[in-house]
Write a structure and sequence with these properties.
The structure is a single chain. The chain has 582 residues and is an alpha+beta fold. It has 15 helices and 19 strands. The protein is extended, with a radius of gyration of 38 Å.
């Protein structure tokens, strides 16, 4: 990630402007020029096109992305601001705030804390094979974690890149070629981009992923180029800043089965900016305020001591010795004495100074000791940093969970209003994220259709991702709400199972299977067969069966509505008992 390339990391540091005005622009080129370069079979023309975009991305876009990644890691620009405090023996603390990581983690957890559910449309015929293919793909690629990585990249840099590629071809025991496994990876936004055509639909022409490897004191750069049908692997040992492409070396190339560029670009918003990118000035100001306060406290601890008066060493003097060890004497023959000063001594004796004047009178200067410090406006400083924190949370639509107003005593409606801005951000970002997921599903459909796994790639268009906001929940209130909805008889049992699954942790489909299994067990052989028992009067048998049914009634609810009816009956009985007691 951000630490992989030292030179790129260094270029992301603060040097005047944060980044070039040309940064964060979409990459486009005329479609006819693309085909001229890529379809002609002339590698030199292709290499020139790729080298131009790689050089531009590496020099202009990557510093911006790397800076944002540094802030997420807590390596803010406060660590690199230049001053001469250390030269003046002053405190120079560099405290970086964690606003960037807090806002990103809140946004990721709120939107994707609960896994995305992939559900087919109601009008789609049941196709267990497609469901199984999609389930296996998600499990093999740890789709739940992958979505969080993608969303983190989106929140930090404003863009994220996802690469689909096929694994190695294998054969079964009979020698039949198996469909290769499709793999999915999130690519570092600082080293990837997609080039589009100039049409209003902006169709992707090709995608690029580049990276640098350090080995044996040498750097090697690799560039992977993805088109609709072919993947090219280049090697460059001269650096990534050249736009000629003459130093590009084609290592190998391979055919793909996705039918379009397998590198998908996700965007966080139409401007492709991060969730807190616009508040970098406030984050820097907050870091500076915190650092300066820490410097003031440290400078106070190391403040200079000012003494007024004379040091009294009358009872604490030592004789000065000569080189031979004898006592040094003055002109009067008296031993020369000097104050005995111990730097570890926690106190000093002071006495007033007597300053003689010309008229014969003396001026007495009282003794005193105090540290030389400056007055700190702590109240004003606290107001300043609180205002910065409030502005950062407000302008990024991120709730401040440490705010006293954001307490557990707030009503549900009050909390909804506090999360209103966050919900608006989540709604827009879900729509953009869904575009990327649907492109992923279409790529999967193309691959499986070409490998004869499914009948048509259009089947994947019937699947829609469903998001569930990850909010703290009150299980008691949720159960009561489900009971009230069940009383209305306005929703189906499947809907009730989906709602109650938030409490039980069991999906609606799994819960339905459990209920069906219990029904089959309960509908097994009864205690008495229909055939008369040997030696038993049929009249006595009927009486025994009726008596057993009265003693052990069938209390197992048959449906979800039966369950809630039993719950309501139990609540009604409890109220009747309480009223009778009162």
């Amino acid at each position: 990630m951000v630490l992989d390339t030292k030179e790129l990391y260094a270029r992301s540091l603060l040097k005047g402007k944060r980044w070039s005005p040309e940064a964060n622009k979409a990459y486009v080129m005329p479609k006819d020029e693309f085909h001229t370069a890529f379809d002609s079979g002339n590698l030199q023309e292709m290499e020139q096109v790729v080298a131009y975009f790689v050089s531009r991305h590496y020099m202009i876009d990557s510093p911006r992305i790397t800076k944002l990644q540094r802030y997420y890691l807590g390596d803010n620009d406060i660590h690199y601001w230049a001053n001469d405090k250390k030269l003046r023996n002053r405190a120079d603390n560099r405290i970086a705030s964690g606003f960037a990581k807090f806002i990103t983690n809140m946004r990721v957890g709120y939107m994707l804390g609960k896994p995305i559910q992939f559900k087919p449309d109601d009008n789609m015929a049941d196709d267990d094979k497609v469901d199984q293919l999609l389930t296996d793909f998600n499990q093999a690629n740890d789709e739940k974690y992958h979505e969080k990585v993608m969303k983190t990249n989106l929140s930090v840099t404003g863009r994220a890149y996802e690469l689909l590629y096929a694994g190695e071809v294998t054969e079964d025991d009979n020698g039949n070629v198996q469909t290769p496994e499709i793999k999915m990876r999130a690519i570092d936004p600082a080293t990837a981009f997609v080039v589009y055509d100039t049409s209003i639909d902006r169709h992707s022409l090709f995608g690029v992923r580049y990276y640098t490897v350090e080995y044996n004191s040498k750097q090697y750069s690799y560039i992977d180029v993805y088109t609709a049908n072919t993947t090219y692997h280049f090697k460059n040992s001269e650096g990534l800043t050249s736009q000629s492409g003459n130093d590009y070396e084609l290592i190998n190339q391979e055919q793909t089965s996705f039918g379009t560029v397998p590198l998908t670009e996700f965007i966080n918003n139409e401007n492709r900016t991060g969730d807190w990118e616009s508040k970098l000035d406030e984050i820097d100001a907050y870091d500076l305020a915190m650092s300066e306060m820490a410097n003031s406290e440290e400078d106070f601890a190391n403040a200079k001591l000012v003494l007024n008066g004379d040091l009294d060493f009358s009872d604490n003097e030592v004789e000065v010795k000569n080189a031979d060890g004898s006592t040094m004497t003055n002109d009067d023959g008296q031993p020369v004495k000097v104050p005995k000063i111990d730097t570890k001594d926690p106190f000093l004796w002071l006495k007033p100074s007597v300053v003689p004047s010309a008229n014969g009178s003396n001026t007495i200067i009282p003794s005193s000791a105090e540290y030389l410090t400056k007055q700190i406006n702590e109240a004003g400083w606290q107001t300043f940093i609180n205002q910065l924190s409030t502005d950062i949370h407000k302008d990024t639509n991120t709730p401040n969970t440490t705010d006293e107003a954001f307490s557990g005593q707030s009503s549900g409606v009050a909390l909804m209003y506090k999360l209103f801005g966050e919900d608006q951000e989540r709604s827009m970002q879900e729509s953009l994220y869904t575009r990327g997921i649907m492109r992923r599903l279409r790529l999967l459909g193309n691959f499986w259709k070409k490998n004869l796994e499914i009948d048509s790639p259009d089947l994947m268009n019937s699947y829609t991702p469903h998001y569930t906001p990850n909010l703290p929940r009150n299980n008691a209130d949720l159960v009561n709400m489900v009971v009230q909805i069940a009383n209305s008889n306005l929703v189906s049992e499947d809907t009730l199972r989906e709602m109650i699954s938030q409490v039980t942790g069991v999906s609606a489909d799994a819960e339905k299977e459990r209920i069906d299994d219990e029904k089959q067990e309960n509908e097994g052989p009864s205690q008495f067969d229909d055939a008369p028992l040997k030696g038993v009067n049929p009249v006595d048998l009927a009486e025994a069966q009726a008596k057993a049914k009265q003693q052990v009634p069938d209390a197992q609810p048959k449906t979800m509505n039966d369950l809630f009816s039993a719950m309501r009956q139990g609540q009604s009985d409890d109220k009747s008992d309480n009223n009778a007691k009162s």
